[in-house]
Design goal:
320 residues; alpha+beta; 8 strands; 42% helix; 17% strand
């Protein structure tokens, strides 16, 4: 009986052979199929990288060309350059079309808040967009400015979203969907009149893109060697010096504490000291530099994963 039970009949043998044959064929086909899928995914990834780099290169070339033209024209007529600078600084130029109107409208909420705090009526008109950004502002109406950090190879536009506050978390500066997003400021940030504190946000990408290399500022030697950066709005250029590196977090809605990401203005020294105290309490190491009253402040903010809702913030002050 045992012998009979253990003996396969002919049908079972044929079925087992067919099954073994199918398995063998699947195995043979799996290798090239997986290789083809890998090639497809690689091609899609490479295409995305090419498009991303091409867009970045194109916008940098547009800026470079415009800057060269702006430098060449005043050189032929020094008086016109002096007049231009004088007008920009005085803010007496006429608004530069739709982009200037949009910028003024976008900062209306911020100005209303300032007026309520100080009782002042702001009637200043935005000056003309800087020559090197005029073409870019026409092509990308939500362009806010430009950030350059040579030590991190950051040379990128900074955007400001419209109704969707988180738009640039998931889109590049062209408006195309992107997991990397792009650099951006809050909807309430104002380029003119200029805020006392501007916060630029960007993803902490593992591949080093966007603000993925910002963590290098946690090294004191790197900090000291790369303190100087450039940040321009559409209306003025600016040189900034690093003051501190902070580790902090986003506070819960009902939690007390200073919220750097909601700090745009200070009208009194007391309000300024709240920001300075926050910086001093959260700095990672001493830098022999600190914020001073009436400083124009710039903060670069990205995610930091040592705590829930953690943030790494590099604080700068304008020097020129």
């Amino acid at each position: 009986l045992a012998s009979w039970l253990l003996t396969e009949d002919e049908d079972t043998k044929r079925q087992n052979k067919r099954l073994a044959s199918v398995i063998s064929q699947v195995r043979r086909a799996a290798v090239p199929a997986l290789a083809c899928l890998s090639l497809v995914f690689m091609a899609v990834w490479l295409r995305g990288q090419v498009i991303r780099n091409q867009n970045k290169w194109n916008i940098q070339q547009m800026k470079l060309t415009a800057s060269q033209k702006a430098e060449a024209l005043p050189a032929q007529n020094p008086q016109s350059k002096a007049d231009f600078i004088s007008k920009v600084r005085a803010g007496t130029d006429q608004q530069s079309g739709k982009r200037a109107n949009a910028e003024t409208s976008g900062s209306e909420k911020t100005r209303r808040h300032t007026q309520q705090e100080t009782g002042k009526q702001t009637q200043a008109k935005a000056p003309e967009v800087l020559p090197q950004y005029q073409d870019l502002a026409k092509q990308y109406p939500q362009l806010y400015g430009w950030l350059q950090i040579p030590g991190l190879s950051i040379d990128l536009p900074v955007m400001q979203a419209g109704e969707d506050r988180d738009f640039y978390l998931h889109h590049d500066f062209t408006g195309a969907a992107s997991a990397e997003g792009t650099l951006f400021v809050d909807q309430e940030s104002s380029a003119y009149p200029r805020d006392d504190n501007t916060v630029i946000y960007g993803h902490n990408m593992k591949n080093g893109h966007i603000f993925g290399m910002l963590g290098r500022y946690q090294d004191a030697d790197f900090f000291q060697e790369h303190k100087e950066i450039q940040f321009d709005t559409l209306y003025e250029t600016g040189k900034y010096e690093a003051v501190a590196v902070l580790k902090t977090r986003i506070l819960k809605e009902t939690e007390p504490g200073f919220r750097y990401y909601q700090f745009f203005h200070y009208d009194t020294e007391k309000e300024f000291l709240q920001c300075r105290d926050f910086v001093e309490q959260n700095r990672l190491f001493e830098t022999k530099a600190s914020l001073e009253y009436k400083d124009q402040i710039l903060m670069l903010s990205t995610c930091e994963y040592s705590q829930d809702n953690g943030r790494l913030v590099i604080v700068f002050r304008k020097t020129g």
